[in-house]
Specification:
Elements: H1 2-5, H2 9-12, E1 14-15, E2 18-22, H3 24-27, H4 51-78, H5 87-131, H6 139-177, H7 181-216, H8 223-227, H9 238-245, H10 248-282, H11 284-288, H12 294-329, H13 334-346, H14 348-356, H15 368-402, H16 412-440, H17 445-453, H18 458-471, H19 473-503, H20 507-514, H21 516-526, H22 535-575, H23 590-641, H24 652-678, H25 681-686, H26 690-696, H27 702-733, H28 735-748, H29 757-763
C-alpha cells in the first residue's frame, strides 16, 4: 500500500509544505493512475472507510452507556426509601411523591410551549431547505426530521432527569439515617447523577450517530461525482461530509430545548424560592413540615428542574457542539471524522471507572466540615480516575485509526498530533476544576474572606463575594488560553476542536456531580427535623458537597462552552470560505489563529479581572473601619483597664487586636510615604499642616513617627466627632442661643450661598451675647 501511495505528490494532491494537508479526494478516485494495478482504491485504508465505520464505535459505546444507565436506575429503585412505619419515613415518601407530581406539572408546561415553538421551526426548516437545497431535494425533510427528533429526545431527557432526582433523594436520606452513613449517602446521591449522565449522554450520542447514517443514505460512493463541487477536499468522502454538515438540524433541536428549559425552569425556580422564603418568615409552623407546605414543594421542584434538568441540557449541548464542530472541521477525511465520535463515546469507560471509585471514609467524625471534606476527597479521586482512564481511551482510539496510516496522508504522526491535543484538553479540564474548587471550598482563603466580610453586614459580604467570583475567572481563563494556543500550534483549528473534546471527556463525571445538588438539597430538607445522632451532620455535609459540586460544574461548563464557541466559530469560518483552516494551510497560519482566539479570551477576561480588583478594594473600606474600632478599643479602653493585657499571647481576641494595630501602623507609614513623594523638601518646610510638622520633628525611629500619625487619625476624628455632637446637643437644648447663631450666620451669608473658607473667617469676628 505504501508503494502504491508513494507515487507523485501531484497525483496525491498533497501540499509539499505541510504533510498534514492532503487532498484525499484526488487519492481515493478511480481516475488516479496509482490504482491501475490489481488493487482498487475502495479496498485500501483509509479509502475504504464508510459512514458505518465512522460511527461504529459511537453506536457501540453509546448503547453501552444507555444499558448501564438503565441497570443503575433499576438498582437505584430497588434501594429502600423512607420507612413507612416511622413518621419521618412516611413524610419523606410523601414529599418525594409531591415533588415528582410538581416536576411532571412543570414538565408538561415546558413541553407544551417548547413543542409549539418546535413545530413552527420544523415547518420553517422544511420550507427553507427544500426550496434552497444545498445538496439535493431531500435536504428539507432530512434536516427538519433531525430537528424534531432532537426536540422530542431532549424533552424525554428532561423528564427522565426530573423523575430520577425525585426518586433519589429519599434513598440518600435513608442511607444517611439507617444504612451507609457518610459513604452510603454519597454513593446513593452520585448513583442518581450517574443514571442521568449515562442515559442522557448515551441517548444523544446514539441518536446523533443514527441520524448521521440517515443523512448519509444515498450519498456514498457516487456522491463525489454528483456533489463534488460542494465538498472541497472530501473526495470519495463527500457523502459522509454532507451528512455531518446537515446534522445541523439535530444540533439546533438540542439548542432549542436547552434555551426553553433553562429560561422557564430558571424563572420558576426563583419565583418558588422567594415564595418559600416568605412562607418561612410569615408562617413558620407551616414551613416546619415541607410535605404540608406547597411553597416548599414548589421550591424543591424548582431545584430539581434547574440543577438536574437545565444544567444537564447545558452540558449535553456543549458536548454536542464540540463533536459537531470537529466533524465539520475534518473536511471529509474519514479518520478525522471517526476520531471525535470514537473518543467521546468510548469515554463511557472512564465514567464507569469513576463510578466505581466514588467512596469516602465512613469514620464517625465529629464535625460537618470533616464529613464534607471526606466527601469532596472521594469525588476528587473519582475525577482523577476518570481523567487517567481517558488517556488510555484516547491512545487506543488514535492507535486503531492511525496505525499504519500512509505517510503520504500525514503518517502515524498525524494521529499523535491529535492525541497530544486530546491529552492537553484532559489535563486542562483538571486544572479548571481544581481552580474552581479552590475558590469554593469551605477551608480556603477566598471562601473564608467572604465569610469574614459578613461581620460588617450583608452588603460587605455581597461585595466580597462578587469580587472573589470575578477574580476566580483568571486561572480558568489562563488555562483556556494556553490550551487554545498549544492545540492551535500543534494541529490547527481541528486541533483546537480536539483539545475541546479532551476537555469535555470528563463530562460523564461532571454530569453526575451536577445532579448532586437537587438530590442533596431535598435530602437535607426532608431530614431537617431528625433527632437521630449524626443524621443532621451527614445530610448537611452532603448538602454542602452538592452545592460545591454544583458551583464547580457550572464554572467548568462555562469554560467548556467557551471552547465549544471557538470550535463552532472555526467550523463556520471554514464553511463560509473565509480562509483555509486545515493544518498548515497556505491561506491561514494555524498557530496565529490559535493566538487570535486566545487573545479574544484575554480581552474578555481583562475588564472582569479589573472589575474584581476594584470591587475587592471597595470591600476593604468597612473591614478597615472594623480594624480601626478593634485597635481603638484595645489601646484606649482594654489596656488602660488592664495594663498586663498585652502579655496574653494565647488570647485570640488579643491576637486580632495586635494584628489590627500593626495594620494601622502600616497604613500610617503609607500615608507618610505618599506625602513625601507628592511634596518636595522645600514645600514640606513651608507647609503649616500637621503632616509637615510631624515630618519636620525629629523622631527616634519611623515607628515612633507612624505612632503619632495613628494618634492624629484616631484622636482627630474622635475629638472632632464628640465636639460636634455635643455642640448640636447643647444648641438643641438652648433654642434662644440657636436663634442668635442663626441670625449671625444669616448676616454673614444672607443669600444662603454654599459656605466658603472666606465666609467662615469673616464670620469669626462676629460675637453674640448669651
Amino acid at each position: 500500500m505504501n508503494v502504491l501511495l508513494g507515487q507523485s505528490g501531484a497525483l496525491l494532491g498533497s501540499n509539499s509544505g505541510s504533510p498534514l494537508y492532503v487532498n484525499l479526494g484526488n487519492v481515493c478516485s478511480g481516475s488516479n493512475p496509482i490504482w491501475s494495478g490489481t488493487k482498487t482504491w475502495g479496498d485500501v485504508y483509509p479509502c475504504n472507510l464508510n459512514a458505518g465505520s465512522i460511527v461504529s464505535a459511537g453506536v457501540l459505546f453509546s448503547l453501552t452507556a444507555v444499558v448501564v444507565g438503565a441497570v443503575l436506575h433499576m438498582l437505584l429503585l430497588r434501594w429502600p426509601k423512607g420507612d413507612e412505619t416511622q413518621a419521618w419515613g412516611a413524610r419523606m415518601n410523601k414529599l418525594s411523591t409531591l415533588i415528582k407530581r410538581g416536576g411532571a406539572a412543570l414538565f408538561s408546561s415546558m413541553a407544551m410551549y417548547t413543542m409549539g415553538l418546535a413545530i413552527f421551526v420544523f415547518l420553517l426548516i422544511l420550507v427553507i431547505f427544500s426550496s434552497r437545497a444545498a445538496s439535493d431535494a431531500t435536504d428539507g425533510i432530512r434536516v427538519a426530521a433531525g430537528y424534531i427528533i432532537a426536540v422530542v429526545l431532549c424533552l424525554g431527557i428532561v423528564l427522565i432527569s426530573i423523575n430520577n432526582a425525585g426518586e433519589a433523594f429519599t434513598r440518600a436520606a435513608r442511607s444517611a439515617m439507617q444504612m451507609g452513613g457518610v459513604s452510603g449517602s454519597l454513593r446513593t446521591a452520585y448513583s442518581s447523577g450517574s443514571v442521568s449522565g449515562m442515559l442522557t449522554i448515551g441517548f444523544v450520542l446514539f441518536f446523533l450517530c443514527v441520524y448521521y447514517l440517515f443523512m448519509s443514505l444515498g450519498r456514498s460512493r457516487d456522491a463525489y461525482s454528483q456533489y463534488g463541487n460542494k465538498c472541497n477536499l472530501a473526495g470519495v468522502f463527500c457523502g459522509q461530509t454532507l451528512g455531518w454538515r446537515e446534522t445541523t438540524g439535530f444540533v439546533y433541536g438540542v439548542t432549542t430545548v436547552t434555551i426553553m428549559v433553562r429560561g422557564m425552569a430558571g424563572i420558576f425556580a426563583k419565583a418558588a424560592e422567594v415564595g418559600s422564603e416568605l412562607i418561612f418568615k410569615l408562617e413558620p409552623d407551616q414551613a416546619a413540615d415541607p410535605s404540608r407546605n406547597p411553597a416548599s414543594i414548589a421550591d424543591q421542584t424548582g431545584a430539581v428542574s434547574v440543577d438536574a434538568a437545565a444544567m444537564l441540557m447545558d452540558l449535553i449541548e456543549t458536548v454536542l457542539f464540540i463533536v459537531f464542530a470537529a466533524e465539520v472541521l475534518a473536511q471529509g477525511h474519514a479518520p478525522r471524522m471517526a476520531l471525535p465520535i470514537w473518543c467521546m463515546s468510548a469515554t463511557v469507560v472512564s465514567g464507569l471507572a469513576a463510578y466505581g471509585f466514588v467512596r469516602c471514609s465512613n469514620a464517625q467524625v465529629a464535625t460537618v466540615g470533616e464529613r464534607y471534606r471526606n466527601m469532596m476527597w472521594g469525588l476528587r479521586i473519582a475525577l482523577y480516575v476518570c481523567a487517567i482512564v481517558n488517556i488510555f481511551v484516547f491512545a487506543i482510539a488514535t492507535g486503531i485509526l492511525y496505525r499504519g496510516y500512509p505517510s503520504r496522508f500525514g503518517g502515524e504522526k498525524e494521529g499523535w498530533y491529535f492525541f497530544s491535543c486530546l491529552l492537553l484538553g484532559d489535563i486542562a479540564s483538571l486544572f479548571v476544576w481544581e481552580a474552581n474548587s479552590y475558590f469554593t471550598a469551605t477551608a480556603t482563603s477566598p471562601t473564608r474572606s467572604v465569610a469574614a466580610a459578613g461581620i460588617t453586614g450583608a452588603a460587605t459580604m455581597f461585595i466580597q463575594g462578587t469580587g472573589v467570583g470575578l477574580i476566580s475567572l483568571l486561572p480558568t481563563g489562563l488555562v483556556l488560553m494556553l490550551l487554545i494556543i498549544s492545540c492551535g500550534a500543534i494541529a490547527g483549528q481541528y486541533g483546537i476542536a480536539m483539545g475541546a473534546l479532551g476537555f469535555v471527556s470528563v463530562a460523564w463525571f461532571v454530569v453526575a456531580v451536577a445532579c448532586l445538588a437537587p438530590v442533596t438539597y431535598n435530602a437535607d430538607e426532608s431530614c431537617n427535623q431528625s433527632t437521630t445522632a449524626g443524621v443532621r451532620e451527614t445530610t448537611v455535609s452532603l448538602f454542602l458537597c452538592g452545592e460545591s459540586c454544583a458551583s464547580e460544574s457550572r464554572a467548568w461548563s462555562a469554560a467548556a462552552a467557551v471552547l465549544a464557541g471557538f470550535s463552532i466559530l472555526a467550523a463556520f469560518k471554514q464553511e463560509a470560505g473565509l480562509g483555509a483552516l486545515m493544518m498548515g494551510g497556505t491561506e491561514s497560519d494555524s498557530a496565529s489563529e490559535g493566538i487570535m482566539f486566545a487573545c479574544a479570551v484575554a480581552g474578555a477576561l481583562t475588564p472582569l479581572f479589573v472589575a474584581g480588583i476594584n470591587v475587592l478594594a471597595i470591600g476593604k473600606g468597612p473591614a478597615l473601619l472594623r480594624r480601626f474600632k478593634m485597635a481603638t478599643m484595645e489601646i484606649f479602653s482594654k489596656r488602660l483597664a488592664n495594663p498586663l493585657r498585652k502579655y496574653r499571647f494565647w488570647d485570640a481576641e488579643m491576637k486580632a487586636a495586635v494584628a489590627a494595630c500593626g495594620e494601622l501602623m502600616d497604613i500610617a507609614g503609607e500615608i507618610v510615604q505618599r506625602y513625601k513623594e507628592r511634596n518636595t523638601e522645600e514645600q514640606i518646610r513651608q507647609d503649616t499642616g500637621i503632616m509637615a510638622h510631624i515630618l519636620r520633628t525629629p523622631y527616634p525611629s519611623d515607628k515612633a513617627r507612624n505612632a503619632d500619625v495613628v494618634t492624629m487619625l484616631l484622636a482627630g476624628h474622635d475629638t472632632t466627632g464628640f465636639s460636634v455632637a455635643w455642640i448640636l446637643v447643647e444648641l438643641a437644648r438652648n433654642p434662644n442661643i440657636l436663634r442668635k447663631l442663626r441670625a449671625e450666620l444669616d448676616a454673614v451669608n444672607p443669600k444662603m450661598l454654599p459656605w466658603t473658607l472666606e465666609m467662615v473667617m469673616r464670620g469669626a469676628g462676629c460675637r453674640w451675647r448669651c
